[in-house]
Specification:
The complex is a heterodimer of chains A (439) and B (364). With 439 residues, chain A is of the alpha/beta class. Chain A has helices spanning 2-33, 47-62, 81-85, 93-102, 106-115, 124-135, 158-170, 188-209, 218-237, 248-254, 256-260, 265-284, 307-316, 325-332, 342-351, 359-373, 387-390, 393-404, 423-435, and strands at residues 71-74, 89-91, 148-152, 174-177, 294-299, 319-324, 377-383, 407-413. The chains are: A alpha/beta (439), B alpha/beta (364).
């Protein structure tokens, strides 16, 4: 335990940062030698380097976390601030799965899960994650074994089916925050239920971690989470400028800190830096793409394995995704957090997330985004792996297009598994869509 | 026949008729409020209208068929109740009223997930009261607590009889389709009529086991097409234990539900249901339950009959296979899409499976 703790601290405080600096130096040198390729994008965001450092450190130090500190695997919608206060090292399997997807590794990794009987019709994040658990196949070296698995159903029910399976494979306790779906406004007993579960989760997490939570610090942690969420929202809003200083595809990557290290100074510092850079780009008239002629909205998760190709295809024809419901979701609900009443306000905030609300709200949000960001159309990714995001999209698309007089397209794909994606067919549809704008 | 029954129930007893999506809902409240629940398990077969295309083809056929069935409007139905079973039914519960122009009132029952805890007991009780209030807005009449107590007693009696019938399946000379078909009549019959049918079934039981085929267990969502039973019987087996969500998984332990407060009694009954992934009991207790059910009925094989794209079921499948492999029990996995008839290929697989279970018996 002591050796493990020393390894963990040394990696986090000395070796890790040194390796990051070395890597950054090498990257800079490569960049200086390389002649920039002409392309449809504006100059790259400098904040990417910092983002890379943060995310790499999470996984690098994570290799030494089990046995050193309590480790929790949590869903992206789980109120992880409370676990962080108990000293948990937190891993987000969804984030890890997305990383595998972006590196085209999902088919190989999820094969282990499929060979054990997990159907290909199941969520590709879940298959990637379970495949990694079964065969320890990951681009990040290794993930630390958890002491606790924490699940919140505000993004989908699938996470609970998936985490039940994980808890059985890993033989660790599962804590649950079950967030009743909101048809219309939330009901008082729904919020109260979530608040009571937070208390129950904290009690279990304390037991597993072997320490008591200092509740006097709760307000501060929630204040930090609130700031982070606000800063992320401000970064997104800068894309209202014309041209937008970044693209919706960029936001899919820069979302990582608000998901993974919400409630920390590292997270907030990162977004302050990103915000300043984006503001500077607006002042200088620098766009995310070179020639922004059309502005679009993206609905649903990214198609991680084809993101570069899609971004290029759109950018070459002057299309920029200036907003995305997925990125926006992380800025919305966090604003309900109140440091004065951490548990109850967290209950409200975590029940209030985009995917836990009815389609009237979804349509309203999309229309508001369209107005605020001045979009000309929308692409709705009909994601085989994400039923809660996708069911209803056909009607949402129709109403969005009819009510606003904008063009919209439903594109069938999958967020992580390229085997479930007909690329040629998708590109043909997207070309036809772009041609309808006169491009 | 079903439509004529509904019309008669409305006219003769002034009942409100509500279509109800699967799976878990407090039928006792509906009974107490004179609401006849007509469950919509698809319905099976091809989608009833083009409205199915409003839901993507990669979503489970129960939901797509329900959309096709309900969206154009169903004569005789006064409203729809959506239990919060899964993401897809949750999606349907908002598409239909919010964006598909569905004219009838809807009610939602957002049941809690996970193991029994203090928080979800309290919540469930409040959610039952909330559902009663939603239904009162539809029927125009509030829930009478005394009527609810009576309804709970009636449903406990139904569960007592269902439990007894399922435990004595081998004592009935009826083929599976008829036997389990009677158990499914509760999907649309008024509870007292249903109880009558169950009693008839009980009166036909022999004093000892009369089924001579290979006893097998089935698990899955719904036995559609019902031809699966005929194929099992034709292959020389019979369904001795049932864990279909539409049948076995909805029978609560009849000893639960005796609390003086009817809502407390309902909470006890909810948590006395067998484990089901749609209520997301933990994996271990569910596997233990399945193994116990299998052993108690001396089954010699397990048929896992899933509906395509059904996430709650599909996540459990590897765990079921693993657990049953450990006890050396053969498992057949079949996936269906609520097709109108069982395919020849599926029939052949059942035949081969039953043959394998018998050869295992003769060659231990």
């Amino acid at each position: 335990m002591i050796t493990r703790r020393v390894q963990f601290e040394v990696m986090g405080r000395l070796v890790g940062p040194a390796l990051m600096e070395l890597d950054a130096y090498k990257t800079q040198r490569k960049r200086r030698k390389r002649t920039p390729k002409p392309g449809p994008f504006g100059p790259g965001l400098k904040s990417v380097d910092e983002l890379k450092k943060i995310m790499t450190m999470i996984y690098l130090q994570g290799r030494y976390a089990d046995g050193a500190v309590p480790v929790a695997w949590v869903t992206s919608g789980f109120p992880s601030e409370f676990l962080r206060m108990l000293g948990y090292y937190i891993i987000y399997p969804e984030n890890h799965a997305a990383l595998c997807g972006a590196r085209h590794m999902t088919p190989k990794i999820s094969e282990a899960a499929e060979n054990q009987g997990y159907s290909m019709d199941l969520c590709s994040y879940a298959r990637t994650d379970i495949g990694n658990v079964l065969k320890n196949n990951t681009p990040v070296g290794r993930l630390p074994k958890p002491d606790l698995i924490a699940c919140c159903t505000n993004i989908c029910q699938t996470v609970l089916y998936w985490y039940r399976a994980l808890a059985a494979h890993l033989e660790v306790p599962l804590v649950l925050v079950d967030t009743p779906f909101m048809f219309g406004d939330n009901k008082e007993h729904h919020v109260q239920y979530v608040a009571e579960q937070l208390e129950e989760c904290i009690a279990t997490a304390e037991k597993v971690a072997g320490r008591k939570m200092d509740k006097s610090r709760m307000g501060h942690m929630m204040e930090m989470a609130l700031q982070g969420s606000d800063l992320w929202g401000q970064c997104l809003e800068i894309a209202r400028a014309k041209p937008s200083p970044w693209t919706g595809f960029d936001t899919f990557f820069h979302i990582a800190p608000i998901v993974s290290i919400r409630g920390t100074e590292t997270c907030n510092r990162y977004y302050r830096g990103l915000k300043a850079e984006l503001e500077q780009r607006v002042a200088q008239g620098v766009g995310g793409i070179k020639d922004e002629r059309h502005r679009l909205l993206w609905d649903n998760l990214p198609i991680w394995f084809d993101i570069r190709n899609l971004a290029t295809m759109f950018a070459e024809r002057g299309f920029n995704f200036v907003c995305a419901t997925y990125s926006n979701a992380w800025a919305e609900a966090g604003r309900l957090i109140s440091p004065e009443d951490p548990i109850l306000s967290a209950a409200k905030a975590y029940i209030y997330v985009y995917l836990n609300r009815d389609l009237n709200n979804r349509l309203r949000t999309m229309k508001e985004l369209a107005g605020d960001y001045g979009v000309d159309g929308a692409v709705l990714h009909s994601d085989r792996s994400c039923k809660p995001y996708s069911v209803g999209q056909i009607d949402v698309k129709r109403r969005f297009a009819e009510d606003l007089g904008l063009k919209a397209l439903v594109l069938e794909a999958d967020h992580n598994d390229q085997r479930l994606y007909a690329r040629e067919q998708a590109e043909t549809r997207l070309h036809a869509f772009m041609e309808s704008f006169g491009e | 026949m079903r439509r004529a029954y509904l019309t008669r129930e409305k006219e003769a007893h002034g009942r409100t008729v509500m279509a109800v999506l699967p799976i878990a809902y407090p039928k006792e409240i509906l009974t107490a409020m004179n609401i006849l629940a007509v469950e919509v398990w698809g319905p099976p077969g091809l989608p009833a209208s083009e409205e199915a295309s409003r839901i993507q083809a990669y979503v489970c056929p129960v939901v797509r068929n329900a959309m096709a069935f309900l969206a154009p409007g169903v004569p005789g139905i006064d409203g729809v109740l959506f239990p919060h079973t899964c993401d897809s039914i949750q999606g349907l519960a908002t598409v239909l009223p919010d964006l598909a122009g569905f004219p009838l009132p809807v009610a939602n029952f957002v049941h809690p997930k996970g193991e029994r805890r203090k928080s979800n007991e309290t919540y469930l009780k409040q959610e039952f009261a909330d559902l009663a209030a939603q239904l009162a807005r539809i029927t125009g009449k509030p829930l009478d607590p005394e009527a609810l107590k009576g309804a709970i007693a009636l449903h406990r009696e139904i569960d007592r009889l269902r439990t007894s019938l399922m435990a004595r399946r081998a004592f009935s000379p009826l083929p599976d389709r008829e036997f389990w078909g009677v158990l499914r009549l509760g999907e649309y019959l008024w509870p007292e009529d249903y109880l009558g049918k169950l009693k008839e079934l009980e009166s036909g039981l022999a004093s000892q086991a009369v089924q001579t085929g290979v006893p097998v267990m089935v698990t899955g969502i719904v036995p559609e097409p019902m031809g699966i039973y005929e194929a099992i019987n034709a292959a020389g087996a019979f369904v001795a234990a049932c864990d279909y969500a539409a049948i076995g998984r909805r029978v609560a332990d009849p000893s639960a539900g005796t609390a003086p407060d009817p809502f407390d009694a309902l909470v006890s009954r909810y948590f006395a249901l067998p484990p089901c992934p749609t209520r997301t009991s933990l994996m271990g207790p569910r596997m233990d339950y399945l193994e116990r059910l299998y052993a108690a009925n001396r089954c010699r094989g397990l048929i896992v009959h899933t509906v395509k794209f059904c996430e709650p079921e599909l996540f459990d499948l590897p765990h079921i296979r693993q657990r049953f492999a450990r006890i050396n029990a053969p498992v057949l996995t079949m996936e269906g899409e609520l097709e109108p008839v069982l395919s020849g290929q599926a029939t052949t697989r059942i035949e081969a499976f039953v043959e394998m279970t018998t050869s295992k018996r003769s060659n231990p």
